Fold this protein.
Amino acid sequence: MKLVLASNNRGKLTELQSLFAPLGIELVPQSALGISEAEEPFHTFIENALAKARHASAESGLPAVADDAGLCVEAFGGQPGVQTAYYATRFGYPESDDNNVTALLEQMQGITDRRAAISTLVALRDAQDPEPLVAVGRVQGLITTERMGSNGFGFDPVMFLPEFGQTFAQLPTEVKNAHSHRGRAS
């Protein structure tokens, strides 16, 4: 079975391909089909994931899977949330995973409440499907005071998981994928 991944994020593609491969599902990034990124004007993960999946499915004629994920920091009232990808731009940095981590570590200096969660919502749908499949994954942890590990992407180097005693970036890929927010949602 072939699905369009409604994202151009290489990290998401790699992670989701490894999660879907055992099911015999081939994920094709929307960029490989000439599909542009969908607008994400909404304030919830579900609305953005559905908008992305609908767009990719309508443009390709194939079923699509979309993931909208974000870091929710307790001390920031759940922010950056759905605006996670653009977090660094709030503080004058260009948009990038590395800059997001830099901005987060700077903003958390002196903050003792380091609790955070990474949430993802995965939606699978055909453009005309009135009942899309929706799954939610959430992982709770703590934000470290410095980067630790080199695996993964996004906030993986600073998302510490107490049950493993490591950040996502320190875990072997198979362990990370099995216990990540995407792994729990997939």
